[in-house]
Design goal:
Butyryl-CoA Dehydrogenase, subunit A, domain 3, 8-stranded mixed β-sheet, 10 strands
């Protein structure tokens, strides 16, 4: 596969992307949308009516719902056809995850089963293990889980103490250790578990519930997603056949981290789906509730909230599907790569997967917080859905690697790509430095194209990223890994930029398809998103350079940043009111 046949991960910072290159939700086919409808109907008709029993941890109900989901094909997207699955593309898989998000507890159990619970077996299991377990996982009669975290090893997963030793007769590995916060632990029939062989070689294993020496601890009682099963998994002389090793001995980190990339982009899509549910609930309430003789939906500050909730969801969704589109394109370029080759393709976009996870989870937290505010005091009461949305959302910033860990990973992964020569990051930073030191150029030909000002903002956002990253790399070199605040601000700049560009590209592609008038709301969302992105970027960048330099050097850098941030601000108040007006008129989410 030639590098020219796909877009390199992280290269968005140093190249111009056209709307035609990106995949957007509007590109989904009728067949893909049917999968979405099946998932949405299943949640509305089968899951939500049983929500109270799910929240009470009535796992008989949960298991019955898994079987129904299996019958509808909702558990099969990532499983190859030869093992009872559908073998769908990643866009379809993400879309199903998005539409399974209506009940938080069940959505989490579903996600753990179909994602991190299933994929280690799909990508690293032996043919015998796949043939034995994947058909049941696909039809919902076998529930899967993933056991990585330990009491002393959370974000630092590779420091786990679970140990494996080969039995004297060479037929089994004997595992000892405790895994903690394991989703589906109490209902799972099979487990992906990680342990260090002889205390050194970090390795993945696949265990059946009947494995001698495997036991399950008590259910955790959590702030949110209360109906999901979360337990410890205890390994006490657990005997695992040597044929149940996943992948190569000592390469368990590849399984752990590569599967998490998939978990991250699917979580981003699921968060977008949950955001839509919360928006619809808040909108419906605002249309019904009256104060001072008017509907809440007619008050300016409530309209502003509804519009901003939609904009942030639109941005997160644009970023998620852009990412999954690139993954699918690379998989196609590889001739439909499967197994570990497929995971290597997905790893190409590990930076984008981390950003999507941050964007989706933080957009959802904003949306549910504002949903509670729209409901007012009722939003704080369990009788109304906003209270559960609020509690359930919080875990997403911890799942699949905390957002803090993902922020540290983003610049580190980009710099490694640059060091390997995979993307010309250093060259672009050097060229920018020369540009900023030179005499400013003035465009004599004004750009009157659609979203011209926003496209210029995106270009300057990229330059701001390169500027801050370049200064940090020059100042600290290899020591940059220890400068967590600067890494986090750099990650925020990069994520902010990816989100803004993804939104502009999605809106432009939509306008090209439907016409400018029909795409008025997406275009308004893009304008709001870009203005907000630049405002945030100014703060991130100023804080980062102020932590690195002082005196005249700092003054020079701040002047360069002001030059990059110079713009005429958009009238975001009017744009938000335009979006809110359309939502209120339609009484549902529209774009």
């Amino acid at each position: 596969m030639s590098e020219a046949s796909y877009v390199k991960g992280g290269s968005f910072l140093v190249r111009e992307t056209t709307p035609e290159e990106v995949f957007t939700p509007e590109d989904l086919t009728s067949e893909q949308l049917m999968y979405a409808k099946t998932a949405r109907d299943f949640v509305e008709n089968e899951v939500l009516p049983l929500s109270d029993r799910i929240e009470e941890k009535d796992f008989a109900v949960t298991k019955a719902l898994f079987k129904k989901a299996g019958e509808l094909g909702l558990l099969m997207a990532d499983i190859p056809e030869e093992f009872g699955g559908l073998g769908l593309d990643k866009a379809s898989s993400a879309l199903i995850a998005e539409n399974m998000s209506g009940q938080g507890s069940f959505s989490v159990m579903y996600g753990a089963h179909t994602g991190i619970g299933t994929l280690p077996l799909v990508y690293y299991g032996t043919p015998e293990l796949k043939a034995k377990y994947l058909p049941g996982i696909a039809d919902g009669t076998t529930i899967a889980c993933y056991a990585l975290t330990e009491p002393t090893a959370g974000s630092d997963a590779l420091s786990g103490r679970a140990k494996a030793v080969l039995s004297a007769d060479g037929t089994h590995y004997i595992l000892n250790g405790t895994k903690q916060f394991i989703t589906n632990g109490g209902i799972a029939d099979c487990f992906t578990v990680f342990a260090k062989i002889d205390g050194e070689q970090f390795t993945g294993f696949f265990l059946d519930k009947s494995t001698p020496g495997l036991s399950i601890g008590a259910e955790e009682h959590k702030m949110g997603i209360r109906g999901s099963s979360t337990t410890t998994v205890i390994l006490d002389e657990a005997r695992v056949p040597v044929g149940n090793v996943l992948g190569a001995i000592g390469q368990g980190h590849k399984i752990a981290f590569n599967v998490l990339n998939i978990g991250r982009f699917k979580l981003g899509a699921a968060c977008a789906g949950a955001s839509k549910n919360a928006i619809q609930g808040a909108l419906s309430y605002a249309l019904e509730r009256k104060q001072f003789g008017k509907r809440l939906a007619d008050f300016g500050l409530i309209r502003e909230k509804l519009a901003e909730m939609l904009v942030r969801t639109y941005v997160a969704e644009a970023s998620s599907y852009r990412t999954v589109g690139m993954i699918d394109a690379l998989l196609r370029a590889g001739g439909g790569a499967h197994g570990e080759a497929a995971l290597q393709s997905i790893e190409e976009y590990s930076v984008e997967c981390a950003m999507v996870k941050i964007l989706g989870s933080e957009a959802l937290d904003y949306v549910v917080d504002e949903a509670v505010q729209v409901y007012g005091g009722y939003g704080y009461c369990a009788e109304y859905p906003a209270e559960r949305y609020y509690r359930d959302s919080r875990i997403n910033r911890i799942f699949e690697g905390t957002n803090e860990v993902n922020r540290l990973l983003i610049p580190g992964m980009l710099l490694r790509k640059a060091t390997k020569g995979e993307i010309p990051l250093f060259q672009a930073a050097k060229a920018l430095q020369e540009e900023l030191m030179g005499i400013p150029s003035f465009d004599l030909e004004e750009d009157f194209s659609l979203l011209a000002a926003e496209k210029k903002l995106v270009a300057n956002l990229k330059k701001t990223c390169l500027f801050v990253a370049g200064v940090a790399a020059q100042k600290y070199g290899k020591g940059l890994a220890d400068q967590q605040m600067i890494l986090a601000r750099t990650a925020d700049l990069i994520t902010n930029t990816y989100a803004a560009e993804s939104t502009v590209l999605r809106a432009l592609k939509d306008a090209a398809r439907r016409g400018e008038a029909a795409a008025a709301l997406p275009l308004a969302a893009a304008r709001i998103a870009c203005e907000a992105a630049m405002s945030r970027a100014e703060g991130f960048a100023r804080e980062a350079v102020a932590a690195m330099e002082e005196g005249d050097t700092l003054a020079t850098m701040l002047a360069a940043l002001r030059r990059l941030a110079r713009r005429t601000p958009a009238n975001t108040a009017a744009l938000r009111d335009q979006i809110a007006g359309r939502l209120v008129e339609a009484e549902r989410i529209v774009l």
